[in-house]
Amino acid sequence: MHSPPARSGRPAAARIRFLAGVILSYLAVPILNAVSPLLALPAITASFGSTAWAAIAIGQSLGGTAGVIVELGWGLSGSQRVARMSPRNRAHAYGVSLVAKSAVGVPVVGVAAALSWTLAPEGFRAETATVAAASAIAMLSAGWIFVGILKPRLFLYTEVLPRAFLIAGSAMAIHLGAGLWTYAVALLAAAVTAPVVGALVLRLRWRDLVSLGPRRLLLVIGYQRAALNSSVFSSVYISLGTTVATLGSANATLLFASVDRLQRMVQQVLRTQNFVFKGWVGREVDPGRRIHQALRATRIGVAVGVVSGVLFATGAPLIAEAVFSGTVRVPPLAAVLAGTSIAFICTTMCTGFVLLVALGRVAAVATSAAVGAALGLPGIFFGAMFFGGTGALAGQLVAETAVLVVQLIAVRRRFRELRASGRWPLAAAPATTDEGPATPGLLTGREADPV
Fold this sequence. Notes:
The chain is an all-alpha fold. The protein contains 17 helices and no strands.
């Protein structure tokens, strides 16, 4: 009997190089997403004051909430699925998603624009409504597919770069004396361009758009219900946070909206690891190895979250001074609360969007988001009412803590089920060779897709 040949180090080295290249490419996506608002915010606050920034924040808050509904949870449940699809099936899946999102989006975008118009400060209503519509329409892009197939450059070229150029152009125009409407129109143009270019890249065919009848369309929307519920409940205290804080106290809007904007910029960068983990975990065909990789991803996410939270808590006051042209002062307590929220959010990105999805427990992610919304909505409202912007940030932290606790309970419960069924040792251990066949039947999540 011949002994098996020694395994070469090349495959491992190639995987490391590939993963490093993907991470570096994905870093360009959130960095540009974070930098592009910086190009416009100083121009907006310097030319029109903090009232204009508050108007933009309201439009982004309501538009982001509407966009969560329009997105229908494809970013949560779809990215890991498309990682194992053929190119033709990916194009078909994108076509189906566009039809379903559009069917839901037409009334939702209209409502968001109308509410933004109503809540906006006098003099900036049209701009606020346009920003809300643009923020919602942006969810039609193909970014969730490019995340799943680990093609960050496509994400960069079809969505991020055009948006950055348009925002930079609007900032330049505002510096030269143009109105605030240039920023709103730039966001709208970027939102409309992204799905068109994405469809061309994926080679979307007309038949992909007309393959769904009304009955099947309802089935697809129903299939996305668990993922959609997760996104909707999360939006109550994330995208809608500024609006809720404003209702609690108008004086809380500026501090909460400013710190929340800085948080979102940091989270854009932190999402880089989440993008990579979704594709890295999702492309693994064997369910047992997929769970093992999801566990490794979660451990990394916790470490990154802690470091990022500490850095944000120490640097937020200085960054806010520069970004908002000296119009916003961030108290130390507010910075600490926001930094802790960032640490928890980074952790739940992995425990929820990666680990629980790999475990076939998307519904648990929705449950955690519902608990977070139930605590976050009154927490932000009453926190703003009694303690201003800092109190609203404390309410946001309460919500993120609840989300993390519920997700950890769901993960622990699922692992207990695996141990009780005798499948945990197999599911937890990686295969002994990279070339060996996948072991079927270790775990069965909801992998079937009606489309």
